[in-house]
Amino acid sequence: MPSPTRFLTILAPVLLGAACKDQPDPPPADAASPAQGLLPAAEFATGCGDGGELDVTLYGALEGPVRWGAGAMSCEGMPRPDGAGARLRFAGQPDGGPPLAIIIGIPGLTRGATGTDLASNVTIIEEGAGRFFSTTNLDTCWTDVDGQDAVDDAGRFAVRGRLICISPLPEVNGAASVTLGELRFQGFIDWESS
User: Fold this and answer.
1) Are 178 and 60 in contact (CB under 8 A)?
2) What is the pTM of this model?
């Protein structure tokens, strides 16, 4: 049986590939120490355009309010592989907490559209620590997208909405979990990026 670190190195890219395609590949198990984790810390707090925000309270292995405004986080969004909707990524550091990345994958979202009860995947990454919390399928979280407005002619859209999950996100490489309260967000999707 492989060690937990080696198991995560093998399993994490498979489970998170669609949500984290633009993340670097984790280093080999012998290159990561527990202090370093498997992913480098995100370069957060680089800005999120006008009006970007993320508001959620976390319970469980990661606990407390996450209230990020546009200047306190980075955010990006792009189409998912093979045109299967879009994903949004928000990264920042809660007061007194570890750096986090929160990724929302919405397979049913299309350019410029809104919608309710869109089945969604959610992943929370404790940046630099190698901890991943993620939905295992599309039947526990849903997103209501109540606005998606073009902000330029290059395919960039401001998107806003809320996400609800009815069960905790299990830890991919451990036995813990994180429960999300209602998550409200405003970010951006670059529909022309790949």
Assistant:
1) yes
2) 0.76
